[in-house]
Queue: 2 jobs
Job 1
Amino acid sequence: MTQTAAKPGPKTVIEARGITKRFQGLVSVNAVSFSIAEDEILGVIGPNGAGKTTMVNMLSGTYTPNEGEILFEGTRINEVPTFRRAHMGIARTFQVMKPFPGMTALENVTVGALFGRDGGEKSMPAARERAREWLEFTGLGHRIDNPADSLGGPDRKRLEFAKALAMGPRLLLLDEVMAGLNPVEVDEVVDLIKKMRGKGIAMLVIEHVVKAIRSLSDRVMVLHHGEKIADGDPTAVLADPRVIEAYLGKRRT
Amino acid sequence: MNRPLLIVSLLVAAGLATLPWLGSDTMIQFGINALLLATLAQSWNILGGFTGYVSFGNSVFYGLGTYGTAIAMTNYNLPFGVGLAIGAVVAMIAALLVGLPILRLRGPYFAIATLGLNGAMMAIFSNLPIAGSNIGLVLPLTRNDAMFYELALGLLVACSLTVLWISRARFGMGLIAVREDEDAAGSMGVNATRYKVAALVMASFFTAIAGGIHAYWSTFVDPASAFDSTLNVRMVISVVFGGPGTVLGPVIGSFILSTVYEVLASQISTAAALLFGVVIVLAVIFMPKGLADILRSRRNLTWRYFIRNIRENRL
Amino acid sequence: MVLAQILLNGILLGGLYGLMALGMALVWGVLNIVNLSHGALIMLGGYVVYYLFTIGGIDPFVALPIAMLVMFAVGFLLQYYLLNLVVRSKMLNTLLITFGLDVVLTYLAQLTFSADFRTINPPYAGANFALFGLTVPSVRLAAFVVAIVLAAALWFLLHRMALGRAIRATAQNLVAARLYGVNPSVLYAVTFGIGTALAGAAGGLYGMIANLTPYIGASLTAKSFVIAIIGGLSNPFYVIFGGIFVGIAESLTALYIGPTYSDVISFGLLVVVLVLRPNRTLRTS
């Protein structure tokens, strides 16, 4: 604690120190280190199979790293189970959207409010009220009573956001929330993410849409074959020849 | 469940409470059986309906409640109420011991792990001298069907009110989230294992009390009747037929099935059992969301409803 | 010496147990259906062999392939006309429907075959021979051999034949199966049919060793499930090994604790295995 207090500038929310994940001998993420501070947005890009989702899974608790350490607000959380990390303030969205299909939009978000940080809101009416606010915030206010599985693509993404935000997170992990959206919808989501800035949340945004990453991120990290090959100012990183070769070059062909 | 429906349900329950003064002996006896079965179904619903974890072993809690009451009353001359409490506590401990390891497992593992449970318990109790081994135990005779009827009705009401509470509470939201998507529920902060075990323990409580009431009423307990695996069939079918995860569905479903069973069983019991199986198969195909969903969407209920259910799930 | 004899009994019985689980593992691995009526299908196969033997006068080992054909047809039709209707829904629903099917088959069997005990009793049923001082019951040895042969045949089918490749592709991914130019509905039905045929063979052999009643299904389903979990779903021989493991465990329990505890042991083994390796994915990879 004294260490972080001594440092100038905003507080570090999450820090990864050389985290490695192997699956039956195949290295998916290799000794990656990074940190995200309050109100900071870290963009993560990399070709398919670069280990981006595996990394999110390690941060959220689905996987335990084979090596390295994950520190959340200075506490080591390597072995902390998923639900407890949610109580600590880690929220995520899934690459494949996972709304609770049998519930309405409001009920979906209410679950987030009921069980999020510090075990969530204990009273149902208060949780529902909080859920309603987040649905308004994400622009789903007019669909609160619709069943989640009746929502279309962009609205599902909004729902995922609202669910994660209702948990009152300190760290928000967004795994390809723009995939499958058209340019107009992408802009809407970018605006939404920008709207969340200033709430003291650290954000990790995995994305393929380079334009979005450029306009959102305070810093960009590039993964390639599970290794970090760049980390820094978005413009500089996206101009780095190694990054272009590893990732952007292929996309442009 | 909305307020008018709740009021109507409570009025119906109050009406049912008058049956011992109005009905014949056979009706009261049928009523006791039907109410106890409805309680078993409603208990099964707490875990099966809300979390989607199918248990084929709830009969074990019934058996433990049965034996707990019987052993307390015959071997130790304890009063009926104490026997019920002992049976319930034993069943809840068993639910905890069984649930903690196997409810950490996902989906089918749990279901099939519970398949072996009934057989295992039956084997243990058949060899247990304190439980009368193979022969069983005879309880003191009490000819008071009205009392047993009111007890069974009270238990069903208590169990249903518990389910009503669950359906509105934070606890229930957690259970439903687990059913809808366990990974997502976990990442949102639901301690899935704890919730599932808590649901199983609650179910075991009501199931065991029902077993205890039945033991004292029938005055005889042996391994085959206490650990009767067809009870699991009846619980599952009542809930699936009535509507899993609803408050009234399991009760209505089990009442209908009890009636059908009563009518058929007086003819041929095998045919009744066969019919149960057919109903499960057809219910899963045509109405996987149960009778409750059909009643809810009754305004625009046509044959399309059933076709849609098939379309959604076929290959 | 007693121990050696017990181990031999366990191994021979275990081969049959493995065969019982083979069909369940196949259907589970490929179709993602945990078939709760598997035990009832084993029971049905037993009765088919029984009637071929008692009424048709056909030697039970000759009747076995006939019963397998019959059971293949039963399985094919069940999957094609019934289970394909729910195969995409939640696992809860496939569990429930096969559970319902188990009830239907059990009580149909009771109506048709009555609840009496039946045993398939060919003239050589009691025959045995001595080997290194141990008694080897001929029928049990034959059952063991049949189990191994069928496991090998299944392995060959899955790994060396086009149909098997299509089946394994389906296990991975339904879309991939379409690339093989096979109608998935038919492929599912064929797979379930093969699983049912294997159950039928197991039932025929079971009827030569133990009593057939309409009610044996549930406990055989549970046993098959335990073995499928222990052996995994990827390799038929592992399933047989799983069966042998359970067979030995049961024989030892019967010797040292008491024969009525065999259900307790199956359940205990299951819990132990599940808890020891809970994260192991069972589907074929």
Job 2
Amino acid sequence: MRIPLSHIAHARSGDKGDTVNIGVIAFWTEDYEILVRELTPSRVKAYFGDLVQGKVERYELPNLGALNFLLHEALGGGGTLSLRVDAQGKTFGAALLRLEIDV
Amino acid sequence: MIRIANGQGFWGDWLEAPVRLVEQGPIDYLALDYLAEITMSIVQKQKQADANLGYARDFPPLIARIAKRIRESGVKVVANAGGVNPVACAREVRRLAPDLKVAVVLGDDLFDRIPELLTRGHLMKNMETGEPLSAISGSILSANAYIGAFPVAEALATGSDVVIAGRCTDTALALAPMVHAFGWQPGQYDLLAAGTIAGHIIECGAQCTGGNCQVDWPSIPDFANIGYPIVEADPDGSFVVTKHAGTGGRVHSDTIKEQLLYELGDPRNYITPDCVADFTSIKLYDEGENRVRVSGIRGGSRPEMLKVSVSYAWGFKAIGTLVYSWPQALEKAQAADRIVRERLAQLGLQFDEIHTEYLGVNACHGPAAPPVADVPEVQLRIGVRGSDRKAVDRFTRELVPLVLNGPPTATGFGDGRPPVREVVAYWPALLARDEIRTRVEVVE
């Protein structure tokens, strides 16, 4: 069955220079393994297309049922250099929650 | 147990939050975080214009407003409001609230020492690009080392009512009261990591008490009266995150998890001047309504290098907008973008970047946004950035004419042409910690 990620997880995103971080958190810890299986770094990078120019890294926090993604070169220079309306990457987390995953 | 509250997540956060924290229930320490990376360059410019400025100017009036209350209740205020002039900030606090004892933490400001440090061979390479700092030494606006909790705790030990630091870490504002009250020592890394993570949770104010929370946000009670966070810390390093009774918002493991992951890098290596905290060791437990217990935290050795935050003058930018209404709003906005770019090219103007977004269509989510039909309206948003101020200024005159000489139904030009803004860029670097010598002074 395919569902949007938002059915099993929530997220928050922010910036560090030109890098966006997205924390994705399972509502129920038993769904953490689905996040690990479905949300590969390459899939996340492909999902954001040319919005993310650099690589995508993934870190695991099983204690929180969460994954942390770092999306490099994703903010048009970042900080004060960025010309983007979302210069701090605040909405990337919400964008990722629309991704369709297999459960 | 001590109670540490955070009443300000950045300079510009809700003015009522710290007042309500001291009025609506018991706390022992009030932490106030004023400094973002960009803030240092702003306060440095203010100090260059007036030697008595260069700090968070909202802070002294706030202290005046709560002075009677903190004198009566014994609440200690810990703030990084000092910017690049903590002594001037302290003097202004003393002028407005003469009954309070005020201490400052000094030694983070490296601006005057940069030439000497470069001469002695400290490269201070940009942590993102690897370039040595000498490449921009002529345009540096500010340079500050991030200092940790121990100098701030030393200032608390003077018995002062208000402790003002410059560029200490955000997390140090919460860790320092624990170091002071519990006698934690350098090298007790599990305890220091626990206090650091407590600091991370509350450093963005209400962002851990229901603000910006994606979990069923319409059900979060009374945003208008949202309670700012309070940590009830125990000497063993465990703590509870809560808020005052009767306030709005929500403290739940969901809201805490979102904030734990906010602006996080490698979760096993959260580096501060005092320790390296391991976010994979955190255990959360919802022990009651609006009460989350945090325990199990482990930490590792402090780093030998401290982070230095340098800001420098980069160039200029301007961002302008126009609104196009239905029908074919997006197509008209796209045509307007092509016209602006062609006119800029005809003028021979050079920019580092020209960036266009369509608000209402895909400005935030880019390729991840779903396709839309003929939308009611679109905001065209064009920005340019470059080193030539004249070119950026010329761009700002190219949008409003489109209302009469471009595609139909353009509006939203009432503010005229957009301002040209100076771009101050940020240069993160590392410096050996023995170069940073902090000291504490009580300001009379």
